[in-house]
Amino acid sequence: MGIKPKFTKAEIRSTFVQRRDRIEQAILATLMYLGEMCVNHARSVNTYQDQTGNLRNSIGYIIVKNGRTIASSFVKSVTGTVESDEDGVKIGRGLARELAKQHNTGYALIVVAGMNYAAAVESKGFDVLSSAEHLAEKEFPRMIRDLKLQIAA
User: Fold this and answer.
1) 51 dihedral zone (left: phi>0; alpha: psi -120 to 50; beta)
2) Which domain of life is it from (predicted)?
3) Residue 94 belongs to what H/E stretch?
């Protein structure tokens, strides 16, 4: 008389799939939270005058998993005092999609200021994304530790 399991191979497989899905959801939620945190910080910094609103509107993020976009956030957040034919949201989203093509394996959170003059504004001593980058560098290790604890639980 042998021991008979009270479960099937399909049930074991299903349990592992459910666990994998929960882990992936936790990773996505963490990256989205960090992306929102960085974008909100970058948009709130008031070291430069954004006359058209395009620079702040071009700030957003995209999350890529194995080369495929799984989340993004680009929204019009300000209206400038000077009219412009450019659409900061569209330009930011386009730059993020181009950068996303470089990430074919694993997860990537890409935060951008999409206007072509963002680096020039930064080079003049104004903060467009640099403090948001520092925020991400500080918060990401803590978030990974929390994520590992959440996954282990």
Assistant:
1) alpha
2) Bacteria
3) helix 88-100
- CA–CA gap between residue 36 and residue 59 (Å, rounded): 10
CA-to-CA distance for 114 and 116, rounded, in angstroms? Answer: 6
Q: Note whether residue 124 is domain-resident.
A: yes
Query: How many domains does the structure of the chain reveal?
Result: 1
pLDDT in tens, 104-150: 999 999 999 999 999 999 999 999 999 999 999 999 999 999 988 88
Q: Are 71 and 63 in contact (CB under 8 A)?
A: yes
* Assigned domain for 4 exists: no
Specify whether the CB–CB gap between 56 and 50 falls below 8 A: yes
Identify residue 94 by its one-letter amino acid code. Answer: G
What CA–CA distance (Å, rounded) separates 45 from 37?
12
Residue 128, in any domain of the structure: yes
* 81 within domain boundaries: yes
Q: How far apart are alpha carbons 74 and 53 in whole angstroms?
A: 13
N- to C-terminal Cα separation, the chain: 37
pTM exceeding 0.90: no
Phi first, then psi: what are they for 80, rounded to 5°?
-75, 170
